[in-house]
Amino acid sequence: MQLPKYKKKKRIKLKICQEPGCGREFWGHPIAKYCELHRDIKQRAKHKKEFESVDVKNMVFKHNYTEVLDLEFCCCLDGCENRYIVKVFPKQFVYPRYCLEHRNDFRRANFIRMQKRKTRAMATAH
Fold first, then answer.
1. Beta strands of the chain (E only): which ranges?
2. Domain tally, the chain
């Protein structure tokens, strides 16, 4: 017994180009994303990463020390009086701005939230 040959059905749909700002309509397979022009990767827009400044989470400490020293800094987070020690190297000027307890973003945000809660509790108690 001979089985009938399977004929592959062409599934071509009217699609819209996914390139930002293009929006052209084209006929293509269901998985196609880009029109004829933007199928070539050189024609697509280059997405550049946005870099944040070094000063956001670090401090720039200008010095002219010629040997490695341990210096004590105060945490720059409002309401935190912790002091921490940093090893200062010659010709290196970027150092952590916050104490070990507040180095990560979540802990800083949590500390600020707790400070606000404390001040609100103090204000309502009086």
1. 13-16, 25-28, 58-60, 69-74, 83-88, 94-96
2. 2
Residues 32 and 66 in one domain: no
Q: What angle do CA 48, 49, 53 make, to 5 degrees?
A: 130
Per the structure, the complete domain to which residue 69 belongs is given by 57-100
103 — phi, psi (to 5°)? -70, -35
Question: Does residue 76 fall inside a structural domain?
Answer: yes
In the chain, where does DSSP find H-type helix? 105-125
What contacts 7, CB < 8 A, 6 or more positions away? none
Task: Encode pLDDT of 33-89 as tens digits.
Answer: 999 999 888 888 887 888 888 888 899 999 999 999 999 999 999 999 999 999 999
Residue 49 is which amino acid?
A: K
Q: Is 48 inside a domain boundary?
A: no
